[in-house]
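Here is one chain, start to finish.
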Amino acid sequence: MLTIFLRSIAAYFILLAMMRLMGKRQLGEMQPFELVITLLIADLACNPMADIAIPFLYGVVPVLALFVIHQIISVVEHAGAFAKRTLSGKPSLIIGKDGLDYTELKRNNLDVSDVMEALRAGGYFSLTDVSYAVLEANGNFSFLPKPTQDSLPENFPPAMSLLLVSGGKLDHNNLKLLGYDETFVQNLLRTQNVRALKNVLCLTIDPNGKCYLQEKNRPGITFTANTGDAKW
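Its structure:
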């Protein structure tokens, strides 16, 4: 028992030293290759701590080897733009001047609800609140607010948008919440000369009737609709 206790303490300080030497980014947003190395290090360090039959060096040496690999990859990553894109990927422009980029959504295995969730996490509650949204290589979103919004809202905004259509499919939960039905959505689309629901990438609405509509591979538009007796 004492041996396991001492091994655990030694492994802790070795891993702490490795993480510090790998740089502060290891403690925050990691690139894909860094995440893989971190997971492997954690797994390798557990074996000699839990099983005294395994020599302690059998856990330390692989950890040191992974540290060396990390340092080599870090040097290669900074050798040029091509190497960095290959090892860590590149940012993707999810929302641009024409609205949501359908191609980038598919390439990154995202749907509109994922973007809406990221917006809310960033302090924005409507697609119309931001000019640009970038999915960084580390998986985080970065947003550029519209010029009229100088800072993030401090309190819960009174006009949070709800998603009615995502990727050509109705969000029945939100429709039920608002007291709407498919006919209401079809009427909205008809006023904007949209012929088929399957062509709609995104349709949102807020309590003021402000709607954001975007067809697949087409620029997004905003318009105002009558919300009727919506239950917000």
